[in-house]
């Protein structure tokens, strides 16, 4: 190996130095982009919270040079012949690229002109290309950069599809208090105060060795490990300390089966749900309080707030009880939530739903743990968690139907205040509080009368139709579920289908221009769910020709057909008993679509009625 190939360099770089007009490829074994919503939310929350903790109203931009830096970790590249390949750190760098694209789009709305583009793409010999270059992602990145959206197709790989979803998560997570004059300060801080350590190897062998070393050993202690060290240091008895250490280690193993950072999320959710009192006000220049401090350094927060978490005398016995009883109780409930997110069960069905369409995990997890009490039975625990999840689902459905955002930044103060309000409440008290909160919402389900599909709400429309379809089929005794339509394990996935084909010429008798037709065509009453391929095979047919196919589909679709009302007592019974105005439509004109719109609204009012009373 030559002297150059054997060389390894490590340098302190700010984000501008890492990305500004720099080119990287992604090594094949690092090719998949797999971050989930929780990872994106943590990144955006950590960055924006760290900035807001430094910024004060009235600061000059020059003062930003004295703001504390934020360390984002190392990344490893292999450099050959002037070309750099990312060996470790692709998830963060790809996520940062998505974030920068969002910020570049946002500044157009804000009317600012910060220099962001060279950190996203650069020009060489007249050709522009993205700085992190993966061929199969170019179309997605170009669409996000120019329009802020990307409609994935069947040929897209999982990474591309995931990138489009994570971009929308960034839109939801970015705080409102930076969407003003503070924006320019944030861009400065992001470019010059966010630090990474760049590790360059000049041979693949050395690069892979560094990668393995960083992932196998030598990692910094996490907040949960430092919390464990502090807790165990308060034990006087060696045997009891060893017992508590074993219990802690086994608990961490259980959490790490879900995700390597799940222990961090658990402690944040538990401490926020049960103990945090203060919240940073939603305005620039405010300082972090309990909820924010727990999100960044919860081990330090616990050490500084022992009385608040019930460790009043600071004696070893209290710490022993805290680990063996409190810790284990809330861990068991948290693990139950994680399982319910992946497996649809009746006792915690709404936990499953809000995993697909709900508020950010940093809000939902503390909410679901907040009302629990140490003496609650398993049945009570499940009822409380499901009740809170049902509230969250109703909240986000109402907001979405009325075209209102529910990003973590826009509702964090509301939701963290609710955490304190429902903390350790009994079932009946919890029901009353949540019902009252829904009654106070300005967004109601009657907003559905004007609800329609547009470029950025496809996922919610599919969620809505999946819930409605499963609901009416369950009323008719058909054994399907939300999962059947939203994400089936087997068979063809379902897609949102327009009842009207995209043929303006067939509707000129009711619409003066094509724009009005397209607008009306997207109303929810003109949409159904059909298996992929099925909608493509007869999607362009006239409505009269579609009907003979619709009768073979799910109940919400086949209810358009007269044949569905013949010799079908279960369907007729559900129609009458539930006051659902199902009608056959031999033709589907504007008035027919309006009737379906009203029917869908009634179904939604049944599902999300806001009645939280428990017998």
Compact summary:
By secondary structure, the chain is of the alpha/beta class. The protein is built from 25 helices and ten strands.
What is the topological layout?
Blueprint: E1 8-14, H1 15-19, E2 24-26, H2 37-52, E3 70-80, E4 83-88, H3 90-110, E5 121-124, E6 127-130, E7 132-133, H4 138-147, H5 158-173, H6 183-192, E8 194-201, H7 204-216, H8 223-233, H9 238-256, H10 262-274, H11 290-304, H12 316-342, H13 349-356, H14 361-370, H15 378-401, H16 408-422, H17 427-440, H18 458-475, H19 482-486, E9 494-498, H20 514-521, E10 527-531, H21 534-538, H22 543-550, H23 555-558, H24 569-577, H25 590-607
Parallel strand pairs: 2-4, 2-7, 3-8
Antiparallel strand pairs: 1-8, 3-4, 5-6, 9-10
Helix pairs in contact: 2-5, 3-4, 3-5, 8-11, 9-12, 10-11, 10-14, 12-13, 13-15, 14-15, 14-16, 15-17, 18-25
